[in-house]
């Protein structure tokens, strides 16, 4: 079945059998997964029908029109966007059968244990160790510290990369695991940010036991497996059509219109400059979207996050200035634990501070510039001093 | 907001680009362009004939029943990208876009002055330019440099781009628009020493020049001029995009090949980050320029906004990329021999042309309700 009409019929039949109004949410989502309508490009039996990904839109439109509940994708983004495609690509049949259904329905939340205090941009230098248990069980014993982990406090599972061979060069001695977050050796502590809230956690791993059946990919193949995860992280942006004044510029433009008392010539010039840049960035996103729809993905996507980070920072900075005396205030410093992060939410001061993270999270702007320069423009890389050295001999 | 613009290039547009790039590679190499700037004839009439008449590109905007190709601003934008890349010394933007669009906005009745002129422009037989200073933005105050007495024009207009290549001047005077033959008695076109060597400006002096009216009243004149200048500003962005794209491509090539400190200079992060930043701006320019081309082509109610958006973004980007290209070429970039100076001179002059970025931002402020204090 590859046809949109057939898929529409199938979705309508499903909705008739499971009326959203009278079916409990959890039950509805599980049934949707079992009917292959969760992610249609996944294989049959794993929530999909093995049809092109573009056809998901047909299903989603029918479900939305029927008022069906969704799986709250923003809350479980790491599972959907990063864990699931990696498990699909490298997992065993047992792993796929056990993990993908509760992942998709949101019954089991996932988090990502990649970054460490000593391994940020240079992720492959990570120091968390996984060593075979001495009891001959084949289990792995994991020790180390991870950081910047969203949702660790809600998570049932984590995707984890750890060093299994320190004598090899850094990229080659890493393995990829699926870590049970209920293990007694997992300690999760909130990591408070400059905004006052704690979106993220530090995760301390002390003698955490992971069965070898929860290894994803071969021993020492962890870096390669992690590339799949990270590639999917960067693909996730840029899917939907954004209206004019749809992003960070919205609140600043609205404030300008509502408050003539705040207007100065200097702020006007700067606002117009940023309005133009925001509108052009929107068009660039729209052009990228059109390229994807036409099946001609260009390299433009590599730059979207760079521009987005810079623009968010500049616009929110201007908004604080535009507020005048009110710009001296902050809405709330209480340590909160938001489940969903909205960069354009709350007040101007929050937006200003939160946007500082946009050029660090998910690849720093400096690393992304290297990626654009080397992979898009074809400029040569810096000479590498770390490629052929055993991890244990690297400077740290 | 009107329908979402198509920001991609069609297959036909890609074919047009590749045909034109082939011609320009053969007929417009940088060394020859530099050599020509040192002669008394800065424009290249043979190249103009090849692309205007032989390829039929001068008539793209002109409907078929007026002798043109009946194409749209989208194809014109692709032509301008390529002409910008090659820094081609031909009066395409001035004649085939601005003058043409101005004439099309007026009375094009068969047998009329404008219709006759458009047919000649479409065939590439003649060149027309708008006799206004090159810095004139759309939507400005009426130009007051020329007056009409007894059907003849008197006055002086400075900074007229491509006037030296023109056979016909479109001259606003006392609320009407007139066609004036440059070869007529009472018309003098004198070259200025211009910053832009490949699109030089000239002074037009009219001392009792014979003139044929093209518009019937001041409102029609205003409309025609705004339409021509707005299309010019919106499509200049595509020329700026092509120019910036050439500068970045050449800079990447140079820094990959140039070795210092025993490695290609392009491997230093201090340099490659700068080129990556330029690439981001070129990518954005492409979206803004394509948007302007498509909105102008479909004739939506956001023509003025799309044109001003494109010009306010693409003009400073072209300058920045050209300036960075010069710096990243090192000493060779500062020589007369290397063509990067042609691009810098064009980019800087273009940032004044048809309204500065700041002027276009002011126009945008009115259009999107972000009023000045």
Automatic annotation (TrEMBL), chain A:
Domain Acyl-CoA dehydrogenase/oxidase N-terminal: 6-107
Cofactor: FAD
Domain Acyl-CoA dehydrogenase/oxidase C-terminal: 220-377
Keyword Oxidoreductase: yes
Domain Acyl-CoA oxidase/dehydrogenase middle residue range list: 111-208
A molecular function GO annotation: oxidoreductase activity, acting on the CH-CH group of donors
Keywords, ordered alphabetically: FAD, Flavoprotein, Oxidoreductase
GO cellular-component term (any): plasma membrane
Pfam name, any one: Acyl-CoA_dh_M
Comp. bias (Basic and acidic residues): 1-16
Region annotation (Disordered) ranges: 1-22
Superkingdom field: Bacteria
InterPro entries recorded: Acyl-CoA_Oxase/DH_mid-dom, Acyl-CoA_Oxase/DH_mid-dom_sf, AcylCo_DH-like_C, AcylCo_DH/oxidase_C, AcylCoA_DH/ox_N, AcylCoA_DH/ox_N_sf, AcylCoA_DH/oxidase_NM_dom_sf, Mycobact_Acyl-CoA_DH
Record-linked Gene3D superfamilies: Acyl-CoA dehydrogenase/oxidase, N-terminal domain, Butyryl-CoA Dehydrogenase, subunit A, domain 2, Butyryl-CoA Dehydrogenase, subunit A, domain 3
Membership in a protein family: Belongs to the acyl-CoA dehydrogenase family.
Protein name: Acyl-CoA dehydrogenase
Organism, scientific name: Streptomyces triticagri
From TrEMBL, chain B:
Any one GO MF annotation of this record: flavin adenine dinucleotide binding
Annotated transmembrane regions: none
Domain Acyl-CoA dehydrogenase/oxidase N-terminal intervals: 10-96
Required co-factors: FAD
Acyl-CoA dehydrogenase/oxidase C-terminal domain sequence ranges: 227-366
Lineage: superkingdom: Bacteria
SUPFAM superfamilies recorded: Acyl-CoA dehydrogenase C-terminal domain-like (SSF47203), Acyl-CoA dehydrogenase NM domain-like (SSF56645)
Keyword Oxidoreductase tagged: yes
Signal sequence annotation: none
Keyword entries, A-Z: FAD, Flavoprotein, Oxidoreductase
Cross-referenced InterPro entries: Acyl-CoA_Oxase/DH_mid-dom_sf (IPR046373), AcylCo_DH-like_C (IPR036250), AcylCo_DH/oxidase_C (IPR009075), AcylCoA_DH/ox_N (IPR013786), AcylCoA_DH/ox_N_sf (IPR037069), AcylCoA_DH/oxidase_NM_dom_sf (IPR009100)
Family to which this protein belongs: Belongs to the acyl-CoA dehydrogenase family.
UniProt name for this protein: Acyl-CoA dehydrogenase
């Amino acid at each position: 079945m590859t046809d949109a009409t057939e898929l529409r019929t199938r979705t309508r039949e499903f909705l008739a059998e499971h009326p959203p109004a009278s079916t409990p949410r959890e039950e509805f989502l599980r049934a949707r997964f079992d009917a292959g309508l969760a992610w249609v490009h996944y294989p049959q039996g794993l929530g999909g029908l093995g049809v092109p990904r573009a056809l998901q839109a047909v299903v989603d439109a029918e479900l939305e029109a029927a008022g069906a509940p969704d799986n709250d994708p923003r809350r479980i983004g790491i599972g959907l966007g990063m864990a699931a495609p990696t498990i699909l690509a490298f997992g065993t049949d047992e792993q796929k059968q056990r993990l993908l259904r509760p992942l998709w329905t949101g019954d089991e939340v996932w988090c990502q244990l990649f970054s460490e205090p000593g391994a940020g941009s240079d992720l492959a230098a990570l120091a968390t160790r996984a060593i075979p248990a001495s009891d001959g069980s084949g289990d792995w014993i994991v020790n180390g510290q991870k950081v910047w982990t969203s949702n660790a406090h809600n998570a049932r599972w984590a995707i984890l990369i750890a060093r299994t061979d320190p004598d090899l060069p850094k990229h080659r001695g890493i393995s990829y695991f699926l870590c049970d977050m209920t293990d007694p050796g997992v300690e999760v502590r909130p990591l408070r940010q400059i905004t006052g809230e704690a979106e993220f956690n530090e995760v301390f791993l002390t003698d955490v036991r992971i069965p070898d059946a929860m290894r994803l990919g071969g021993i020492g193949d962890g870096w390669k497996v992690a590339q799949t995860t990270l590639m999917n992280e960067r693909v996730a942006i840029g899917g939907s059509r954004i209206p004019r004044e749809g992003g960070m510029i919205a609140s600043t433009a609205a404030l300008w219109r509502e408050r003539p008392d705040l207007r100065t010539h200097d702020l006007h010039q700067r606002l117009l400059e940023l309005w133009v840049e925001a509108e052009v960035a929107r068009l660039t996103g729209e052009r990228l979207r059109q390229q994807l729809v036409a099946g001609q993905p260009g390299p433009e996507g590599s730059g979207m996050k760079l521009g987005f980070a810079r623009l968010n920072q500049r616009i929110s900075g201007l908004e604080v200035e535009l507020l005048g005396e009110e710009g001296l205030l902050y809405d709330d410093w209480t340590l909160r634990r938001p489940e969903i992060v909205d960069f354009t939410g709350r007040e101007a001061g929050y937006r200003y501070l939160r946007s500082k993270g946009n050029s660090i999270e998910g690849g720093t702007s400096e690393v992304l510039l290297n990626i654009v320069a080397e992979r898009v423009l074809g400029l040569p890389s810096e000479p590498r001093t770390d490629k052929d050295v055993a991890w244990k001999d690297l400077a740290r | 907001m009107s329908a979402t613009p198509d920001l991609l290039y069609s297959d036909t547009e890609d074919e047009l680009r590749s045909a034109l790039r082939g011609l320009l590679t053969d007929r417009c190499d940088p060394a020859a362009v530099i050599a020509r700037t040192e002669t008394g004839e800065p424009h290249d009439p043979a190249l103009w004939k090849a692309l205007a008449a032989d390829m039929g590109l001068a008539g793209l905007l002109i409907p078929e029943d007026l002798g043109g190709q009946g194409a749209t601003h989208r194809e014109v934008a692709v032509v301008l990208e390529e002409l910008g890349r090659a820094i081609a010394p031909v009066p395409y933007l001035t004649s085939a876009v601005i003058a043409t669009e101005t004439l099309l906005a007026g009375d094009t009745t068969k047998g009329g002055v404008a219709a006759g002129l458009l047919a000649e422009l479409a065939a590439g037989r003649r060149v027309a330019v708008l006799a206004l200073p090159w810095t004139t933005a759309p939507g400005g105050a009426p130009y007051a440099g020329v007056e009409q007495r007894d059907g003849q024009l008197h006055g002086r207009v400075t900074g007229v781009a491509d006037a030296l290549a023109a056979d016909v001047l479109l001259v606003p005077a006392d609320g009407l628009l007139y066609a004036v033959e440059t070869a007529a008695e009472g018309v003098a076109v004198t070259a200025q020493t211009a910053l832009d060597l490949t699109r030089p400006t000239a002074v037009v002096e009219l001392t009792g020049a014979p003139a044929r009216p093209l518009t019937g009243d001041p409102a029609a004149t205003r409309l025609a001029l705004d339409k021509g200048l707005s299309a010019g500003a919106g499509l200049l962005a595509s020329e700026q995009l092509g120019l910036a794209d050439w500068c970045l491509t050449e800079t990447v090539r140079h820094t990959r090949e140039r070795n210092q400190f025993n490695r290609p200079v392009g491997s230093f992060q201090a340099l490659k980050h700068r080129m990556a930043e330029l690439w981001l701006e070129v990518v954005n320019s492409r979206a803004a320029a394509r948007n302007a081309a498509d909105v102008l082509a479909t004739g939506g109610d956001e023509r003025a906004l799309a044109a001003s958006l494109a010009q306010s973004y693409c003009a400073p980007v072209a300058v920045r990329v050209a300036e960075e290209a010069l710096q990243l070429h090192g000493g060779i970039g500062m020589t007369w021999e290397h063509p990067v100076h042609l691009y810098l001179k064009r980019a800087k002059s273009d940032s004044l042309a048809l309204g500065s970025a700041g002027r276009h931002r002011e126009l945008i402020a009115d259009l999107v309700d972000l009023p000045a204090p």
